[in-house]
């Protein structure tokens, strides 16, 4: 579990991000928690995940809660940086998976705790998983 604070913190797809591509058959999950009454703001800074029309090979999925049964906020791959994500509650689950071939650079992201009153914008609505 990663604890979000009011200061930006960084998350990387893999330990040698920036030096090496990610490995085959990775499966990583991060639960990011804000304090009671606050929300998690999550932004990808760099994003290069093996591209495929349904993101069926390698992907990053984000869920609005602690579990993968919570509403999905997106399934991402390719090199287009996804939009900012803000949880509706105090937690987000980020899951990164890679298959057994073709590895790209991975991703880097920042996360922080926010109150929606100070945010000035709404929460991303859960979308159907594609």
Entry keywords:
mainly beta, Jelly Rolls, four-stranded antiparallel beta sheet, 1 helix, Sperma_CUB_dom_sf, CUB_dom, repeat
Question: Can you tell me about this structure?
Answer:
With 130 residues, the chain is mainly beta. It has one domain (2-119): Jelly Rolls (Sandwich). It contains one helix and nine strands; from the N terminus they run βββββββββα. It has one helix at residues 116-119; strands at 2-3, 9-12, 27-33, 39-48, 59-63, 72-76, 85-86, 91-97, 106-114. The strands form two sheets. The protein has a five-stranded mixed β-sheet, with no helix packed on it. It has a four-stranded antiparallel β-sheet with strand order 2-9-4-7. The protein is globular.
- How many DSSP helices? 1
Lateral arrangement of strands in the main beta sheet: 1-3-8-5-6
Amount of beta strand? 35-45%
How would you name the oligomeric state of the polypeptide chains in this document? Answer: single chain
Low-confidence stretches: none
How much helical structure, as a percent, in the residues?
under 10%
CATH topology: Jelly Rolls
- The CATH architecture designation is Sandwich
- What is the CA-based Rg, rounded? 14 Å
Query: In this structure, how is the largest beta sheet organized?
Result: 5 strands, mixed
- State the CATH class: Mainly Beta
Shape: globular
Mean pLDDT: 92
Number of strands: 9
Domain CUB: 1-114
Pfam families: CUB
Protein name: CUB domain-containing protein
Organism: Magallana gigas
């Amino acid at each position: 579990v990663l604890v979000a604070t009011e200061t930006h913190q960084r998350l990387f797809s893999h330990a040698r991000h920036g030096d090496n591509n990610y490995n085959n058959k990775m499966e990583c999950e991060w639960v990011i928690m804000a304090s009671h009454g606050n929300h998690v703001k999550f932004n990808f800074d760099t994003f290069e995940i093996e591209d495929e029309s349904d993101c069926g090979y390698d992907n990053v999925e984000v869920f609005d809660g602690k579990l993968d049964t919570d509403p999905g906020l997106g399934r991402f791959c390719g090199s287009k940086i996804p939009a900012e994500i803000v949880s509706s509650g105090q937690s987000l689950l980020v899951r990164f998976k890679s298959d057994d071939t073709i590895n790209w650079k991975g991703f880097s992201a920042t996360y922080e705790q926010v109150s929606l009153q100070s945010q000035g914008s709404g929460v991303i609505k859960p979308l159907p998983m594609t």
